[in-house]
Amino acid sequence: MNFVVSNVNAYIDGGFEKCSILVENGFIASISKDGSEFLGYEKINGEGMYLMPGFSDVHVHLRTPGFEYKETMETGTSAAARGGFTHVCSMPNLNPVPDSVENLKIQLDAIKKDAKIAVYPYGSITVGQKGEELSDLDGMAGDVIAFSDDGRGVQNEEMMRSAMIKAKALSKMIVAHCEVNDLLKGGYIHDGEYAKKHGHRGICSESEWKQIERDIALAKETGADYHVCHISTKESVALIRKAKKDGVSISCETAPHYLIFNDMDLQEHARFKMNPPIRSEADRLALIEGIIDGTIDMIATDHAPHSEEEKTRGLEKSLMGVVGLETSFSAMYTHFVKTGVITMEQLMKLMHDNAKARFGIGNDIEVGKKADFTLFDVTEKYTVNPEEFATKGRFTPFEGMEMYGKCVLTVFDGKTVYKS
Question: Which of 68, 168, 270, 292 has its Cβ near the most Cβ atoms within 10 Å?
Answer without folding.
Answer: 270
